[in-house]
Amino acid sequence: MLSNASRWLTYLTAILYAILGIALFFLSERLAPVFAWKVTPFMTATMAGWCIGNAFSAFISARRWDWKLVYPALIYLWMFGVAELIVLIVFRNKLTLQHPIAWLYFITICVNTLTAIVGVYDLFRLKPRSELFGQQAKGYHYGLIGGFVVIVIGLAIYGLYAQIGDVGTNGGVFPEVMSLFTLRAFAAFYFSLSVSAAIGLRERNLSTLLNYGFSSYLLVVAITAAIFVYFHLFDFDNHPGQFIYVGAYFLVGIPLTITLLREGTGLRPA
Question: Within 13 Å, how many C-alpha atoms sit on residue 173's CB side?
């Protein structure tokens, strides 16, 4: 497995994301005006969902700390930190680091990126090998993962290339108008998710896939909770495309819940 330094950095990443996510979610109205860039309370609550989900994913990964079990979740976390840092660098002229919450976001992303660098270094140094263990995944598991990848990669590609004024950017999918900064930050999140999930399509061990689903579960729940808190912002009659945003989380969350209840969380037997 990777080094203890990598493990403790993953724990630290979990702690920082937990503090950040809880603050942004429960104080979204207050913290939105002083965040690192211009966002609305709903956008703030949604990003809080990312952070809460990342905290859970990082904690589960560091707690179980078996490369063959947690590597898809770690790859997601590493990609998320690096991708979001790139977004901050690209839009640095619009970055406002005045309030402590803005600094906490920036520091958390930097620590996440440092965790990724140390993790990748360990990966190339140790070269862990693939291993078959326990029950093997079945066709319908890959069907669920494939469906998830299709949904998320579509959102990622659109967010990476769309410009302000394009279809869906003015409340057509997300119920509020996004700045290009926010649109790219969302795209980086979806891109990290889609790539890490796509890696699961080549994974044969069921426990590894279940662990990835379990470690990602709070991410889906927290973002869905943000949707319900700000559900009054949605206008499905005039913007039917908003069903895409809401429906995506239900299309992922419901099958994931059923699978985890039926088959477990992927905790590898001794």
Answer: 17
Provide the pLDDT for residue 270. Answer: 38
- Intra-chain end-to-end CA distance of the chain, in Å: 16
The answer to whether residues 179 and 37 touch, using CB atoms and an 8 Å cutoff, is yes
Structure tokens at 197: 């999930």
Which has the closest alpha carbon to 256: 202, 195, 193? 193
Of 138, 133, 112, 114, the closest CA to residue 57 belongs to: 112
Q: Is 256 helix (H, G, I), strand (E, B) or coil?
A: helix
Angle formed by the axes of helices 67-90 and 180-199, nearest 10°: 160
Q: How far, in Å, CA of 236 to CA of 173, rounded?
A: 10
The answer to whether the pTM exceeds 0.85 is: yes
Residue corresponding to tokens 């279940």: 210
Cα–Cα distance measured from residue 159 to residue 65, given in angstroms and rounded to the nearest whole number:
33
pLDDT band of residue 134 (cuts 50, 70, 90) is confident
- What is the pLDDT, as a whole number, of residue 189? 96
The model's confidence at residue 268, banded by pLDDT at 50, 70 and 90, is: low
Query: Residues 108-118: what's their mean pLDDT?
Result: 98
Tokens 């403790």 correspond to: 8
| Residue 81, token pair as written in the block | 């930190």
